[in-house]
Amino acid sequence: MDFTNKHVIIVGGSQGIGLATANAFIQHGATVLITGRSPQTLQRAAEEINSPNLQIMAADTSNMNGIADLEKWVAERGKKVDVLYLNAAIGVYAAIQDVTEADFDAQFNTNVKGHFFTLQRLIPHLADGASVIFTSSRVASAAGVTSSIYSATKAALNKISDVAVNELADRRIRVNIVSPGPIQTPGLLSVAPKEVQGFLASRSALQRRGNANEVANTVLFLASDDAAYINGADIAIDGGSIQYMLK
Ligand SMILES: NC(=O)c1ccc[n+]([C@@H]2O[C@H](COP(=O)([O-])OP(=O)(O)OC[C@H]3O[C@@H](n4cnc5c(N)ncnc54)[C@H](OP(=O)(O)O)[C@@H]3O)[C@@H](O)[C@H]2O)c1
């Protein structure tokens, strides 16, 4: 896969899956902008990747000002976006009776509203034939206890993606979803204690968690010309899940 002269934006690219994907795109010749809220984490990411083809931008996607800043950056740069990877998310796990309004809003604002309006504002800046990829989750179609809001955000994102497939097709823009199972990232470590991660790994047919590069590889494939006829797909990256949280 060759992404030379391709311009990639990764919303939520400073660590975990987003960072691994940024690194992979750069290894394959792309120029990449990654966003995140924390300037320190972005700086660490820049030092790790250490490439003139990487740019960083502190922007909070849950906030319309952050989205406007990103749009301004793209407009001023004057280059069409070839790949838009909408990856940021937060997860707060609590039983329905314990969910606070603040946790509800934070998850929907980041995981759904942020990606919806980023897509909306960047549509004019997408190249014809561009690739849009959302990170959803296997939990979008599950019903695990304490995951009501997080799962609902991912299910909502999937539907937005479905509609975008049809709305953007006249410009040959493809829209696809990657749905990871448990992937070893700082994000997973922060929400799942070790024993929970062991449990999640045990529910994968391959009996392990995935790593961020395994998601990145799928994102690059979807963004590449090799996937030119893949549109509206939702690719599970979970080692083959044993269905443990079915509706
Ligand atoms: N890891 C898993 O097991 C797993 C499983 C299924 C799905 N996923 C999905 O995969 C994606 C990446 O997960 P991950 O585990 O790599 O997460 P992670 O390690 O927590 O990284 C999340 C990235 O998103 C950024 N981010 C979070 N909120 C943001 C905001 N409001 N504005 C801009 N950037 C923001 C973070 O930077 P800042 O914190 O500095 O903003 C960071 O760069 C998420 O959509 C997640 O739901 C992960």
From TrEMBL:
Top-level division of the source organism's lineage: Bacteria
A GO MF term: oxidoreductase activity
Keywords: Oxidoreductase
Pfam families documented for this protein: adh_short_C2
CDD domains attached to this UniProt entry: SDR_c
Protein family per UniProt: Belongs to the short-chain dehydrogenases/reductases (SDR) family.
Name assigned to this protein: NAD(P)-dependent dehydrogenase, short-chain alcohol dehydrogenase family
